[in-house]
Design a protein that fits this description.
Residues 303-365 are annotated as: Disordered. The chain is α+β, with helices and mostly antiparallel strands and 365 residues long. It is built from eleven helices and ten strands.
């Protein structure tokens, strides 16, 4: 009985000494490194079955635990450039422990911390969803604004990431030493990305993104680019003015969205100078936005107006991009067959010759 009590006291003192040698580390690291230490030593003592069990040097054992975990030796100065993933995780754990200790110092802080701790399973699921969103957007090319997967393969991928995140939260599925630092890095990146992901995944924002994708600018388009003016040439390649254009339904074909509410349009020429386009004033009863080419106002006159409006009285037809273009190919009429002469009247039939009387021969007397 006394032998067992002596071994138990030695084991207890040894474990306390090991924890004291690791006291410069965050409490979570100390608990992780010394978890099950007493049970292991007790098992060794029972196997040896010898009086006066001596666990050994507690400080040396603590140094071995540090080396196995990749942690710095106690009292060794840390270089600013020598930060490793394990050291970063240790620093983060220390900061988290300090925050938790400060929160526990008040009743409200303690209850608030307990509330957030109860939400950890929800955080694990949310972290898995965030990783799925980023991976699916980068690898599969899914829209970042979608909330849930759209097919079976994506659902399997989401469940896989959520399962791994939950197991990591429970301290499972971390067989290699580099996985805990990776878990910390993934958590930090998820915290940074989550606000943006949640905003983009809201229904109102998804509809706004869809609206932007489906938005078509008003007016006339060519390959998705706005057309501001149209120049017409005749079959001889000469420019025409005052040409009225209509669509297949007889509606005026214009380059603006609302002709009645658009008095003028500002655009830029090929040389980068500002061009003010105005409709023709020769169309009775409506605006002449379908009369091409549109008139333009000199930008100098436009800038001189105190009201900021272009002086429509100075409008002149816009200069066409080409003084003339290649004429259309002249169509040569196809040769026609010579007319077939009308059949002439039948030649008169010659009368049959009448019979010549044969003179009667004179009979002799």
């Amino acid at each position: 009985m006394s032998t067992t009590t002596s071994a138990t006291l030695a084991i207890r003192d040894f474990a306390a000494a090991v924890r004291a040698a690791l006291s410069d580390l965050p409490s979570e690291d100390v608990e992780e490194l010394t978890d099950g230490l007493e049970a292991d030593l007790t098992e060794q003592a029972e196997d040896l079955d010898a009086p006066g069990f001596d666990p050994g040097d507690a400080v040396g054992y603590a140094d071995e635990l540090r080396a196995a975990a990749g942690l710095p030796v106690r009292g060794k100065p840390r270089l600013a450039s020598a930060w490793t993933a394990n050291e970063l995780r240790t620093w983060a754990s220390a900061q988290r422990s300090n925050l938790a200790r400060k929160a526990r110092s008040t009743v409200i802080g303690s209850r608030t911390l307990d509330f957030f701790i109860s939400l950890r399973p929800f955080w694990w699921v949310l972290r898995g969803w965030a990783v799925y969103k980023v991976i699916s957007a980068l690898v599969i090319g899914n829209s970042i604004a979608s909330t849930l997967p759209s097919n079976g393969v994506e659902w399997v991928l989401l469940l896989l990431f959520v399962t791994v995140s939950v197991q990591w939260g429970r301290g499972r599925w971390l067989p290699w030493s580099w996985l805990p630092p990776l878990r910390t890095l993934v958590s930090v990146c998820s915290i940074i990305a989550l606000p943006l992901l949640l905003v983009l995944a809201t229904p109102w924002n998804s509809s706004a993104v869809q609206y932007v994708e489906d938005y078509v600018p008003p007016g006339l388009l060519l390959d998705g680019n706005e057309v501001f003016n149209v120049f017409v040439y005749d079959s001889d390649g000469q420019p025409l003015t005052g040409v009225q254009l209509f669509d297949q339904d007889g509606q005026p074909l214009t380059t603006v969205g609302d002709p009645n509410a658009t008095p003028w349009v500002a655009t830029y020429g090929a040389d980068g100078t500002e061009v003010i386009l105005v409709p023709s004033s020769d169309v009775p009863g409506r605006t002449g936005w379908n009369v091409f080419p549109l008139n333009k106002v000199d930008s100098v006159d436009y800038n001189l107006q105190p009201s900021g409006e272009p002086d429509l009285s100075t409008a002149t037809p816009a200069v066409p991009p080409f003084t003339q273009v290649r004429p259309l190919t002249q169509q040569t009429p196809s040769p026609t067959a010579p007319p077939t002469p009308a059949p002439s009247a039948a030649p008169p039939v010659a009368p049959e010759p009448s019979a010549t009387p044969t003179p009667n021969s004179k009979e002799g007397n």
